[in-house]
Amino acid sequence: MKKILLLGSTGSIGVNTLEVIRKFNDIFEVFALTANSNITLLEKQVKEFNPKFVVVKDKNKAKELKNLLNGKCIVLSGSEGLIEITKNGDYDILVSALVGFAGLAPTIESIKRGKRIALANKETLVAAGEIVIELAHKYNSEILPVDSEHSAIFQCLVGEENKTIEKLIITASGGPFLRKSFEDLKFVKVEDALKHPNWDMGNKITIDSATMMNKGLEVIEAHWLFNLGKDKIDVVVHPQSIVHSMVEFIDGSIKAQLSMPDMKLPIQYALTYPKRLESAFVDTHFPTLKELTFFEPDFNKFQCLKLAFDAMTEGGTAPCILNAANEIAVDKFLNKEIKFLQIPELIKKSLESIEILNKIDFDTILECDLKTRELTLTLDT
Ligand code: NDP
Ligand code: MG
Q: Per the count of CB atoms within 10 A, which of 1, 135, 334, 340 is most buried?
């Protein structure tokens, strides 16, 4: 039995991961589950999956859950609880599915123990890719992508040598505003931005998909995961989200990974790799797909995508600033404090206002993240 520590079990990836574990309960067991504050769902999950530990970030909610569970499992709390469990827990695989920068520190603790990391939390690689990949090499920790595009690329690369890659072709659905004009984007509402055409995900990534920042973050994620420069990574819009991404090789051959969109597939692969196990989560029936279309992304309309490419080229702490400013801007948009097109404006201002450092270590990243958040909160648009 492989023991799983699932960070963010009450989120979209968390719930999908538990479905995979439920299906394969003869090979996986839950060691610990964590949430920010949703103890109603967490309590249900504890009753079904019997973890040894749970961690609730919100300390008051942790106390409440402790009373509800009445000794059924050990309840830890706060960010220190997340560090404690990743650093000292007895588990085999970490599923890193917190949202945002909060996922970085616990993921690093797990990498330092040489664990397998099923990585959904892309912000970890965006903010601190260099540090994370270096540590993974040093401690022999395998990072298996959960993000569907990166899982697709990873699957295309099985049996291939990295030096034979001509380029990665990352597909993007284009989100709910693909067909809107730049003018129309001025007036879009939070409710419209939260309606993703193909995927049911947490609020932050759904807004990132609407601005296409998600694709920008994924380009940076791919850069670190596959050790390739910007010139080797293309983005192509593919509204049907059937082709999850592709790899073009030096002989002109292209491999793609396809299926109906369902996050359980990449989650399962990250947990069972190198094995493929039988499951019936997705059923792809070609004659009903009608058409698969592809076109260039519009960098003028989706300025976040351009900001992300630029931050990746700049390097150093630029992607960390991009990520932190984006988290604050998305929060502000979700709270209806700013308009949709002010998201890229705030990020741009933050990138222009904060000094970008080239030499980075963990403390520099923590400082840079904090400083960017403080500044972005106070910026006027
Ligand atoms: P959700 O918002 O649905 O879930 C986030 C999870 O993290 C919840 O369990 C939440 O707890 C917990 N959480 C949130 N903030 C904190 C915090 N500060 N400290 C501790 N725990 C916290 O997100 P998703 O599942 O959609 O996404 C998770 C990650 O996976 C993101 O990085 C996203 O980019 C990535 N990803 C997601 C995909 C998807 O299909 N959803 C696809 C590809 C990548 P609570 O419920 O109590 O708030
Ligand atoms: Mg993705």
A: 340
